[in-house]
């Protein structure tokens, strides 16, 4: 419910999903979930249909998904609620279908400069290299997955269970797991600083015709 610009985060996500033709939405809620229900209701105002899966206590990223299992039919897109996304979701879904995947994780390129210098030594302890605040580049999970309902069997119900645990369990059991690399926008809003940054980028983006933060 935190606002980014004039709308709460979830409203941005709903509008993005609708842009890609997804209009049936299950919202998994826990603490203060009633606030979401009071604001979004059944979703008619946004031309989507919303139902709610409520758990009495926090269950972790995968545990909350498991709690929504009775309301899920077939293939679905799973999103975290503390981010803004913009990329070609249709392309990601097509990749998932082509691979006949059980679950596909969306990745985006990320770059960061480390806070400290990294030192390398040889076996004798002689200093061989000083890397001052090196830049690290790689691909990160942006909290968007395309999943078959069968993936939910790998999540332990009724307890705290994280998505990385579910993926490890699925991998151990031989599930078809893939990752698709996408270009686009990913704004993580998991703490105060990133929330401030997101609002600043949103405001700046509106003046330029859109948000664009590529990682």
Using brief descriptors, characterize the structure shown:
Spore Coat Polysaccharide Biosynthesis Protein SpsA, Chain A, four-stranded mixed sheet, disordered C terminus, 6 helices, 30% helix, single chain, 215 residues, alpha+beta
Structural class: alpha+beta
Number of helices: 6
Q: What string, H for helix and E for strand, traces the elements in order?
A: EEHEHEHEEHEEEEHEEH
Largest sheet: 4 strands, mixed
Estimated radius of gyration: 20 Å
CATH superfamily, please?
A: Spore Coat Polysaccharide Biosynthesis Protein SpsA, Chain A
The domain count comes to: 1
Q: Please tally the β strands and state the result.
A: 12
CATH topology: Spore Coat Polysaccharide Biosynthesis Protein SpsA, Chain A
The CATH architecture would be Alpha-Beta Complex
Report mean pLDDT, rounded to a whole number: 90
CATH class: Alpha Beta
Unreliable spans are 206-215
Q: Strand fraction band?
A: 25-35%
Distance between the termini: 25 Å
Morphology: globular
Tell me roughly what share of residues is in helical segments. Answer: 25-40%
């Amino acid at each position: 419910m935190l606002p980014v610009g004039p709308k709460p985060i979830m409203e941005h996500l709903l509008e993005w999903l609708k842009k890609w033709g997804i209009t049936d939405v299950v919202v998994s809620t826990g603490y203060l979930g009633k606030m979401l229900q009071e604001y979004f209701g059944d979703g008619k105002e946004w031309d989507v249909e919303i139902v709610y899966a409520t758990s009495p206590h926090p269950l972790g990223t995968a545990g909350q998904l498991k709690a929504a299992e009775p309301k899920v039919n077939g293939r679905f897109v799973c999103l975290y609620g503390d981010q803004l996304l913009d990329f070609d979701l249709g392309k990601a879904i097509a990749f998932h279908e082509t691979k006949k995947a059980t679950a596909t994780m969306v990745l985006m390129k990320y770059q960061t400069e480390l806070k400290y210098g990294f030192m390398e030594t040889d076996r004798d302890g002689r200093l061989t290299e000083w890397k001052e605040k090196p830049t690290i580049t790689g691909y990160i999970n942006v909290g968007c997955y395309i999943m078959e309902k069968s993936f939910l069997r790998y999540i332990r119900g009724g307890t705290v269970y994280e998505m990385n645990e579910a993926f490890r369990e699925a991998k151990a059991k031989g599930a078809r797991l893939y990752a698709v690399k996408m270009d686009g926008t990913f704004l993580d809003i998991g703490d105060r600083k990133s929330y401030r940054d997101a609002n600043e980028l949103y405001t700046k983006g509106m003046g330029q015709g859109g948000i664009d933060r590529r990682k």
